[in-house]
Amino acid sequence: MLNERKKKILQLIIEDYISTAEPVGSRTIARKYDLGLSPATIRNEMSDLELLGYLEQPHTSAGRVPSAQAYRFYVDSLIEPGTLTDNDRALINGWYSERRRSIEEIFQSTAKILSRMTQNVSMVLANRDVSARFRYLKFLPLDEHKAILCIVTDDGNVDNCVVEIPLGMRFEELDYIAGRISRLLEGRELAGITEDLLSAIHTNVADDKLLFTSLVRSIRRMSRKNQEQSSFSWWYQAAFEPAGISRCRKKVKKSSGYSGRGAGCP
């Protein structure tokens, strides 16, 4: 457990580092903040905090920077809850009153709100429901030879691909096929679409191999994506947050395997 003096020094170090993005030394704390402590005393406390895992020394710098453990402690125990202004409440209510087409858009909006209100980098992570269920598929005509195949799941995700319309097949027939397959698969988990079901799809597309192949590939692609991408994230960079710029670049690069996208990072 940290005593009150260590907590205060740790809080000041974290907040100073967030503001300046520069390692923080004992002289900086003694000069900028009226703690009534000498630099030597603060330095001893910082040494203890480093031994306890709350501070780290970057390279050969004389200063220290907060560790991940320190940020966790800061969020859980040191930071004081604030009060939303009327403008903040109006912003939040306005954003969420708009109709959203998918869960990703809701999380994107959440990240935007957090970034705007905190003037900082924001990140939203959410576990993707690996049990997403098939809702329906639909063909949208491009021309007399091609159509867009859309597969929609119950969580609002959509997979699109362009398919060749079989020679001599009218678009009304494609609509009929889409309806039959939708009824066949509706409510089934993507991960639970078996080879027997795929064979049933084959029967419903009148043995047209090209169309069947496109359907199966799209269904399998969506099932694989749903299982592999267990989380997604949205990132925003406030330009005036110096400590976040380099970290943002690294984090977004690391998150490239996620299904979310980043915005605003230079």
Automatic annotation (TrEMBL):
Keywords, alphabetical: Repressor, Stress response, Transcription, Transcription regulation
One of the record's GO molecular function terms: DNA binding
GO biological process assignments: negative regulation of DNA-templated transcription
Domain Winged helix-turn-helix transcription repressor HrcA DNA-binding, first and last residues per copy: 2-72
InterPro entries: HrcA, HrcA_C, WH-like_DNA-bd_sf, WH_DNA-bd_sf, WHTH_HrcA_DNA-bd
A Pfam family the protein falls into: WHD_HrcA
SUPFAM superfamilies: GAF domain-like (SSF55781), Winged helix' DNA-binding domain (SSF46785)
Domain Heat-inducible transcription repressor HrcA C-terminal: 104-226
HAMAP family reported for this sequence: HrcA
The name this protein goes by in its record: Heat-inducible transcription repressor HrcA
Source organism per UniProt: gut metagenome
